[in-house]
Amino acid sequence: MSAPSCQPKSERAAAFAFTSTSSVASLPVTKECCDEMGVHSEISSFVLPLGATINMDGTAIYQCVAAIFLAKCVGIDLTLVQMITIVVTATLASIGTAGTSGAGMIMLAMVLDAVGIPTTYIGIIYGIDRLFDMGRTALNVVGDASCAVCVNTWEAQMDAAKAKAKKA
Questions:
Q1: For FRET with 37, which of 1, 14, 95, 157 sits at 20 to 30 Å CA-CA?
Q2: H or E segment at 144?
């Protein structure tokens, strides 16, 4: 039996993710929060680990913003094609990013390489990346939990529709 918490159900997972900067380390807390919100265990056991692996929305957004910021800092004017390349590369890189602390910075090097920005400029933002990593991870974990809640709702609606069709 767990101790009562003064935090709302979903905030515990976000707070743990924020401080640990690891969506994978946050999985047990996120699962517990989803269970408390009424998500079936089968759904949260599937959706949350999958989300911790491939749902890195915060990382994708950060990599796009960081790449454009670094380009502007060093005086590189990006073309529309380069900006689209950044978005596509950052999205694909975020899917492959490990759910551990600091992994997004390694993937940022790949995004910068894709558009010809020297990776040595990562040092400009490296010092504050830990703070950004905290926010990215919290965003990713909240997204994973939201997805689990949505899937649970859709499953309940499908079950209700099937039961209604059987009665008719």
A1: 95
A2: helix 129-167
